[in-house]
Amino acid sequence: MAVDNAYIAESFSLLAKLMDIHGENSFKTKSYAIAAFNIDKLTEDLTVLAREKIISIKGIGPSIGKQIVEIVETGELGQLREIIQKTPPGVIEMLKIKGLGPKKISTVWKEMEIESIGELMYACNENRLLLYKGFGEKSQNNIRDTITFYLKSQGSFLFAEVEGYALQIQKNLRTAFPQHLIALTGSFRRQLEIVDQPEWVCNIPPSELSSCLSGMEFQSAQTTNEILTASGPENISLKFHCVPSEAFYSTLFETSASEAFLSAWRKKFAAMPNPPSEESIFQESGIPFIPSALREDPAMLDRSLNLQSLIQTSDIKGIIHSHSNWSDGSQTIEQMAKACIEQGFEYLVISDHSKSAFYANGLSEERVREQHLYIDELNLQLAPFHIFKSIESDILNDGNLDYNEGILATFDLVIASVHSNLKMSEEKAMNRLLRAIENPHMRILGHPTGRLLLSRPGYPVNHERLIEACAAHQVVIELNAHPRRLDLDWRWIDYALRKNVLISIDPDAHSIAGYHDIHYGVLAAQKGGLRAEQNLSSFSLEHMKRFVSEKR
Questions:
Q1: What CATH number should be reported for the domain holding residue 18?
Q2: Sheet hosting strand 219-222, strand order edge to edge
Q3: Helix count (H) and strand count (E) of the chain?
Q4: At residue 493, does pLDDT exceed 60?
Q5: pTM of the entire structure?
Q6: Domain span at residue 399?
């Protein structure tokens, strides 16, 4: 970036904000902010002024004047470089979010231990900001909305963020072109957790499609004879493969498979000219139809799975892992239970946060006992529907859970998760997790890596050892269905199944609306080849009662 007055002013402005975030000397912080303001208003070009002239400018002074000269001569401010190096990039990025000033960012970083915008979004969804000074419901909602708008400009999206958008465009196109072939394809059709660009295959002439998209307020451009790209006011890039009718199904097949899968396919099978359907491509090759969700790993071409029996959302019989207003959820347990009944579920596993999760109003031992009495009353009222007494117990640094044996024994089901001190080496993470898995009260390992998609990679783990330990100790592994988690990663489901480890698709719901997230968990589970009988939340009520009664 060229050094000019605007660049110099921005350097001092950023320095002032970062110093404020770090809690440094308020007098110095204010002086840099004032300098930035004054520089921004100057009509004289600082890059050509003599040093003596710079120092004499009102609101500058010798110290800041010297730093201006440093920027002009070297292109950067050393003090700014140093403070940037000790500030997480995600914390700096928070300055782009309207409604988040340095003081609030300092609280988010130092008190909430949040270091990225994605983590902050997740905290908003869990109502965690409300527990800290300076944040109310209105400011939390404003921050959530601003982050949502900001993330849309970054180019990569969670599947859940583009699903409704893509399906609505699909619906509009089919209405506009009822006689044409139109289908979603690409990473969206493969149900990948992150989608960079929704794609379609169609037999609509590019000129007609472009005209239609223009009427829908999209700007489009034809990049090749067959490819049309477009973007709308939401700033999401779209891609259309416009092909002749006879090439529709072959193109749909090719664009809804990974490069590795497609390369292996081409080495193994001859191309089928002008196939009348996708199914015919597989029939011609002599293998069972492979759903697009499973067209990732070339090894799938040699598998003998019954791929038509993949788990479906309708197979989920109960909501496991949910938070009520006893901790950081939005609704009462009664409201959440009645919503389960209305939606056809047979049971609810209420899993509020444990006492170490002070940031989430975790339950003390006394509150645990009070909640259990309340659940007993509700079970009498709501029978045959059943609420299981659970907890999401924090896995402490040494691998212990944060209640004593006596309290842990009172729960029907203990989910154990890591929520704090996430910056660990693989050795530290594995020691912590393996110790927890050995605890006889633990039944489910919650979100095993702590990742947040597009925000936080999670702590490093040896997945093979982790899964093998769960197999040895009969611990279920959660597939946390929140679209920002989807943890366990679907890429490890097959290994878990080969080790006879149960998976549990759980929404980690902090509100009734969160129940819908099981949909995203199921889509991810399908990519791992999961069947209903291999999933804990697909157990019937009676089956779940037997599971609960069978101690490890």
A1: 1.10.150.110
A2: 182-185, 199-202, 237-242, 227-231, 219-222
A3: 23, 14
A4: yes
A5: 0.81
A6: 313-549
